[in-house]
Automatic annotation (TrEMBL):
One of its GO terms (molecular function) is aldehyde dehydrogenase (NAD+) activity. Residues 3-212 form the NAD-dependent epimerase/dehydratase domain. InterPro entries: Epimerase_deHydtase, NAD(P)-bd_dom_sf, NAD(P)-dependent_oxidoreduct. It comes from the Bacteria. It comes from Kitasatospora phosalacinea. Pfam families: Epimerase. This is NAD-dependent epimerase/dehydratase. One of its GO terms (cellular component) is cytoplasm. Gene3D superfamilies: NAD(P)-binding Rossmann-like Domain.
Amino acid sequence: MHVFVTGGSGQTGPAVVAELVAAGHTVTALARSDAAAARLESLGAAPHRGSLDDLDRLRSGAEAADAVLHMAFGGDFSDPDDMRRRDCAAIRALGGPLEGTGKPFVSTSGTLVLPVGREATEQDEPDPAGIAAFRIAGERACLDFAARGVRASVVRLAPTVHGPADHGFIPMLVATARSTGVSAYVGDGGNRWPAVHRLDAAVLFRLALEQAPAGSVLHGAAENGVTFRSIAETVARGLDLPTASLTPAEAATHFVSPFMATAYAFDGPVSSARTRELLGWSPTGPTLLEDLEHGDYLTAPAA
C-alpha cells in the first residue's frame, strides 16, 4: 500500500514509518520543516510539505494514497477547544477523499479518554468529563467515516509509549525528580498506567492499516496497568533519591503543571485483549520498568 502519514517525524512516528517501509509499504509523510523532511527521507519515506492546519495539503496527500494514518496532534493544552477543533478539521480533510473507496483510515487517540478506576476495554465508551475528553471528538470524527465507505479505525495509545529518546510523561517525571530531589507519586501511588514500547506500537499501527475492520477501536497497551508508585520507586533507585507521597494539592505545585499532576494520579488500567485477538498483535518489547532501569531515561540529559 501507499500510506500517507501525519506525525511521521514525531516521537512514535519514525518507528511507525520504519515498520511500514520494512513491511513493503510505500510511505509519504507530512513534513512541516526541512528537519522533518530530512528525517523522513532517512527512513525511506517521501516528505509531503505542509502542516495540520493546511487542509488542502492534507486532502492532496490522502487523495494520492491507498491508506491514511493520522498520528499528529498539537496545540496549546491550555486551550483544549482549539486542539479539538484542529484535530477534527484535519481528520475530516484526510477522510473526505477516502469516502466510498473502502480504503483504510487509522487515527490516533489515547487510553486517557476512558473512565477512571477500573479496567476499561475497547468496547467501553470514553468519559466526556475525563482528563483527555478533548480527544473524543477526533475519535468520533474518524469512526464516522466507517459508515461512509471507509475502513476507519482508531488506535488508543497508552499514556506512555516508551523507548529511546522519549520526551513524554516519563521524562518529565524524571526531570522533576532531578530538579526537586525527590521522586514523587500521588496518594499511595496505587493508580495504574498502561504502557507500550514504541516498536510494539509501530507494529500495531501497521496491523491496523492492513487488517482492522471498519469501526474498530484498538488499544495500544502491552501492559494493562503499571502502578505509579513502582514507576516512582524505579526512578528513585536509578537517581539515588528518596520517594515521597504527595497530596493532590501538593502535586499540583510539585509537578510541571496541574494537568500533569492530574495525569500522574490517573488510575486508568485498560485491556487490549480484543485488539490482540482481532489483529494477532503480540507485544514483545521491554516493559516500562525494564526500560526505566536499562534504557536512557535516567542517563540522558534532562529534557
